[in-house]
Amino acid sequence: MSVAAERRLGMIADLVIEHATLVTVAGGTGPLRGARQADLGVVPDGAVAVADGRIAAVGPRAAVLRALSGVPAAVFDAGGRVVLPGFVDAHTHPVWAGSRAEELEQRIAGATYVEIMAGGGGIGSTVRATRAASETRLLADLLGRLDRLLAFGVTTVEAKTGYGLSTEEELRHLALLAEADRRHPVRIVPTFLGAHAVPDGFRGRPDAYVDLVVDEMLPAVATAWPGVFCDVFCDDGAFTLAQAERILRRAAALGLGLKAHADEFANLGCTALAAGLGATSVDHLVATTAEDVAVLAARGSVAVLLPGTTFGLGSTRFAPARAMVASGVPVALGTDLNPGTCPSESMPLMLALATRYLRLSTAEAIVAATRNAAYASGRGEMAGRLEPGFAADVIVIDGDDYRDLAYRFGGNPVVRVMVGGRWVAGDGVPNAERRAS
Asked: Is the per-residue pLDDT at 151 higher than 90?
């Protein structure tokens, strides 16, 4: 029998991680909700066997080693440290040029997000800088952000466009994401966000810009990148409920997945709209009502919460995560990496914020940053769990207690990162191994 055939039987491993405190987040189907939001599946003195880039076996060390029919090519001794699935960042905006550091000073002086946008700053400022940047510059910056996400344990990332706001630019940014996905170990899930803001050329004519999104951008995106997600920002200073509905219905008709930025600043009704249309996730949800929470629970959309954004804005108003968990809404986390409100690639920091301000337990926050975030990103059947058949995307934490992920903050507890069965970041991993040529 060939080695390939033996591997299909799951009996030969390329690598075994042993003596680990495993957090598997495994078992069953779908995102975890309600009381199960805290189901970590902890295995003391566990092991993970990897073959052909996937998890072949996981469980108590003795049982995994007994299941192997030969000596693995490599063994990594975790020394009792926590080993868990790679983080899935369920909401990022990683393609941009320029800086908006001056906006922090404006917010410190009392300016609001909407006021900064109205004055020509905010998203519009980044759009101008990004349009002017070369592909070489944008790609280099994008790869650098992916390097930092990877170092913090992110192995899959949902990545939005939204700083192009023209058909040509939005397609250019989707192409840059595809090129980054080819070059970089981090797995990229692209999302089209042409409806991020009304660009300068359409000031005072938002409906005309929505016409462009619906009649030109969406068909072009669906042709070039079939099946990608489509997102829309429905809020004060962005798009109205009626405009968001036009965009989401057109995207659905073209076969695109649906997402929505909703209730970040004001409740315009987009949460119920998006969930009712079958959105995979609805994100932000700071101003979400009890009625909206009930709709999310009934429809099954994942709530992607972004505490780093609230922190970045200097606000004290956070999404009602405890009400969501109590109502059976599956909760996920993302960094909302972007140049204006959350210029951070640190998922461990998001867990620290989620426990303190969203009042999630550490176990609930870990599920939100792994399994549930994978479902929010359309990757729930391959990422976010340590389970046979899933991608061997694994991180090792400096500590033997999973609660350290939220207890500690300000540093990086991730000491090693594996993607597809290959160590790609962390202690003892050369930089040359981290990115494909």
From this structure: yes
